[in-house]
Amino acid sequence: MKTITRRVATIATAGALGLGGLAIAAPALAGNGPFGFGSSSTASAGPNGMGPGYGMGYGGGACHRLSVTAEQGTLSEAQKPALALMAQKEKLSHDLYQAFAARYDAVVFDHIGVAETQHLSVVRTLLQRYGVTDPTADRPAGTFTDKATQATYDKLLAQGKQSLTAALAAAQQVERDDIAALRAASSGLTAPDVEQVYTTLIAASQRHLTAFTHWSTR
Question: How many whole angstroms separate alpha carbon 151 and alpha carbon 149?
Fold first, then answer.
């Protein structure tokens, strides 16, 4: 059983994210949302939403926040499903890492799980801005509307339950898949704010991958 005390992630129920010089209300992650957080904080900040440390102390309780300053553009009908998929992927990451955090005494899962809540909040803001239905709204932890995402989550969760080493390997796979998906979705974008978010999330996933890789060699 896990013995360390974990910091509960807090996300604004009406937090302001800077988008194109405007204050855009971030969709709620509290109450009946997929993570059920009841308290709040303001989302804004660093370029990658991650602190230094590669998971050893993993930012020392840093806020894992990010902001969007690029202006709004346009998304094609073909690009909107990709944005919705990014929300599913961020939720998958969060839910999986929190499940592993509850099972293993490895703080890297706690801290990166907190970062994923911020990433989902920003993606949700873009979904709202571009009129795309949020597929993660009101979904309990570990449940997904997309069948492929659900199958991936179930497979990785079962893998990670075998051992801490297996959980870290599953987390590394999540981050590699996220980087590939984000790079593919970035092709041909004409929306500066979405492009900025994707670029930031790629950088964050690369740091997450480094952190999980570091922990796997401890």
Answer: 5
